[in-house]
Design a protein that fits this description.
CATH superfamily of the largest domain: Fructose-1,6-Bisphosphatase, subunit A, domain 1
CATH topology of the largest domain: Fructose-1,6-Bisphosphatase, Chain A, domain 1
CATH architecture of the largest domain: 2-Layer Sandwich
Distance between the termini: 24 Å
Strand order of the largest sheet: 3-4-5-6-7-8-9
CATH class of the largest domain: Alpha Beta
Number of domains: 2
Shape: globular
Number of strands: 15
Length: about 270
């Protein structure tokens, strides 16, 4: 078990994750271009909840690469699981937005987070839409391909765009109520179907809010850190709770926090500021 890591060791992991995310993301994109949708699905976990060959292959590649490079680190993946009772753990969604990937929608990505104790130390996301890697190390800002990214400084809700997420694990009425609240405030909204990509849209200022009532750890951890390091306000459960049970997330431009206060109040009992 790793109890502490130096700045150099954290940076080495971040550079490793950036390279790996780009490689597996591009490989998955090429694989999708050359395959039919009907040939990709290997499991249906529920309504609109699929597992493709690319999900399994990408996670296997990531898991093997991490085990070889950092054999003492733990691993937790969407498709293959893994122990969370370790202080140093990689949390991976090999393809976030699998349904989009399967059907040919652009919004999907590869999400890789590294957690050390109570903190997300590294967040890396390959954004297939732009063929770019977004990354952050805790306390060091957020970047895309080496250039700093920053959350929106917008303060006028009538110009704001929110990105929402929803899954069948949660009450649809809650989602509809959020849409009504946004509409009443003059805020436009989108649903993209990929939490990691929604969070990097907040990080780079394209959107002003990402909200979802429940996500698993692999869906949110990398994007949460990137959005936070880009200057967004991020509200989510404590790390230990997320790793075990998942939870809700709000990431928003700080200048609009009052306009999204209904979400912050809704989640106050179970969430905290990152």
């Amino acid at each position: 078990m790793v109890h502490d890591l130096s700045v150099r060791e954290i940076k080495a992991r971040a550079e490793f994750a950036e390279t790996l995310a780009r490689e597996v993301g591009r490989s998955a994109a090429t694989f999708r271009q050359n395959a039919s949708a009907s040939s990709l699905v290997i499991e249906n976990k529920g309504h609109q909840d699929f597992v493709t060959i690319a999900d399994r292959q990408t996670e296997d590649t990531i898991r093997s690469a991490i085990a070889e490079a950092f054999p003492h680190d733990g691993f937790m993946g969407e498709e293959t699981g893994g122990a969370v009772n370790t202080e140093a753990v990689w949390v991976v969604d090999p393809i976030d937005g699998t349904t989009n990937f399967l059907r040919g929608f652009r919004h999907w990505g590869v999400s890789i987070a590294f957690v050390l104790g109570e903190h997300i130390e590294i967040g890396v996301i390959y954004d297939a839409t732009r063929d770019k890697v977004f990354s952050a190390i805790r306390g060091n800002g957020a970047f895309s391909e080496g250039k700093a990214v920053h959350a929106s400084t917008l303060t006028d809700p009538n110009k704001a765009i929110a990105v929402l997420g929803h899954s069948r694990r949660t009450d649809f009425d809650v989602y509809i109520q959020v849409v009504r609240e946004l509409y009443a405030r003059g805020i436009d909204y989108r649903r993209m179907g990929a939490a990691a990509i929604g969070l990097v849209r907040v990080a780079d200022g394209t959107a002003d809010l990402y909200y979802e009532n429940h996500l698993n750890s692999w869906d949110m951890l990398a994007g949460a850190l990137i959005a936070h390091e880009a200057g967004a306000a991020v509200l989510m459960p404590p790390i230990a709770d997320i790793l075990l049970n998942g939870g809700a997330i709000v990431a928003n431009a700080k200048g609009l926090t009052d306009d999204f206060s209904f979400l912050h109040k809704q989640l106050a009992s179970s969430c905290q500021q990152l």
